[in-house]
Design brief:
157 residues; alpha/beta; Alpha/beta knot; five-stranded parallel beta sheet; 5 helices; 5 strands
């Protein structure tokens, strides 16, 4: 089973690239996780519906029938670290999925049709965050979850 973090970003901010690289290296020592940037059309931020539709189309072209999809959504139920770990760990036993896809939406979130296809909606925070920050928080929580699962020192309660 493959795990992938899907995004629509095109940012090249050095702080983000450094943090992303660091967490991906740490995670990949424990579990293969790939970061995939999906392409969407360059559309003005003034046209929300067109941007969401472009991202939806790009995502559905990438999606395979046997993929599990977890969408990060600000309207989902809050997760603490242990609940995140339990939900994340549950996908290890779901062998009928070829890939587990974690999707972070663009500036306007995720199209409703994509959310309907998701197995679950997870909430990162009640705070409004830049999508680059959200990705780092997700990667850190995946790493933290793996460290808890492997019973290694990292997480303190």
């Amino acid at each position: 089973m493959k795990f992938q973090l899907l995004t629509f970003d095109s940012a090249k901010d050095p702080w983000f690239l450094d943090a992303k690289k660091e967490f991906l290296e740490k995670i990949n020592h424990l579990l293969p996780l790939e970061s995939v940037v999906l392409k969407s059309k360059k559309i003005s931020r003034d046209t929300k519906e067109l941007k969401l539709a472009s991202e939806r189309d790009s995502f559905f072209q990438y999606l395979k029938p046997n993929d599990a999809l977890i969408v990060f959504d600000e309207r989902a139920q809050d997760l603490d670290t242990m609940k995140f770990k339990e939900k994340f760990e549950s996908y290890f036993q779901k062998s009928h999925f070829q890939r587990v896809l974690f999707l972070v939406g663009g500036a306007y979130g995720v199209d409703p049709q994509v959310k309907q296809r998701a197995q679950e909606l997870w909430k990162v925070s009640s705070l409004t965050m830049n999508h680059l920050v959200v990705q780092i928080v997700i990667l850190e929580q995946i790493y933290r979850s793996l460290m808890i699962i492997k019973n290694r020192n990292y997480h303190n309660e």
